[in-house]
Here is the input.
Amino acid sequence: MSEEEKLLEFEKRIENGEVIEPKDWMPERYRKQLIRMMSQHAHSEIIGMLPEGNWITRAPNLRRKLGLLAKVQDEAGHGLYIYSATETLGVDRQELNEQLLNGSAKYSSIFNYPTLSWADIGVIGWLVDGAAIVNQTLLAKCSYGPYQRSMVRICKEENFHKKQGYEMVSTLAGGTKEQKEMVQDAVNRWWWQSLMMFGPSDKDSPNSAELMRWKIKLKSNDELRQRFVDLTVPQARVIDIEIPDPDLKFNKETGHWEFGEINWDEFWSVVKGNGPMNKQRMAARRKAHSKGAWVREAAEAYANKHKN
Ligand code: BYC
Here is the structure.
């Protein structure tokens, strides 16, 4: 079969809703796009542990500490599942990690902001994990088998993260005047950044057309962002929290919440490495990588010893 015929057959399989498995033929570009997107996703899970890990020692009580510890551990597990799924595409985890450390692979913009108060931890669970679920629920139906399967458990855990975040936020919102102010301040600092997680608007998204044709993405960046806004605004109203957007209004005809302009200059600046915490995040990753060298060496020596 010629390459062209193989491509036609591959695209027919995608069109019919078939799932592509690691040993199936796939265009090189499909493999490359998946490696790019999945590895960036895995890196985001691992870097995402840092802003929250910052508050483990300062959780206000044992229940909150246990919840936060479990959440941060879950993120490590998510990174592990997605790195493993990415390795089925014939790429080594060491190589993926090098790409992160040398700056050629990205990770989510959201983790380049600081966690300034305890309320940030609740707001991250509510908004950041809430945004992640909207995106990942569809990835759980994407065309590549290992990626979609890794998403099933991740989505279940993210749902728990979101629920515990919303419970924290509603507790603070119903607390003292200071607690309410603290949580409103956190929402003011994380709202727009959560909207940016969905990526550039569709007209500025170079990868979307290809990813949607191959059903890696099932909905566009703007469609998912709108869904997140529609789900989240009513949740904010229930707990009397204001969304920091003067242009936010409900359009009865479309049934959607219309929102103001996102600061795309800020988004691209953060993506290019100039956000408030980019340098600290990468420094923490480099340190963890070099401190873990002995574990990798020991694991390799053990594997070699037990090869036969
Ligand atoms: N941040 O063509 P586009 C989590 C880049 S972890 C940084 O639209 P695509 C969690 C994009 O990579 C959440 N960069 O790209 C963890 C591309 O650059 P390259 C992570 C971004 O791939 C712990 C360029 O901009 N989730 O949930 O079609 C605790 C043009 O964009 C961002 C995932 O990774 C961004 N926000 O769409 C709590 C999900 N947005 O690579 C929570 C999987 C865009 O060409 N990924 N860029 O150099 C996706 O769904 C898609 O890759 C995206 C972007 C929607 C993110």
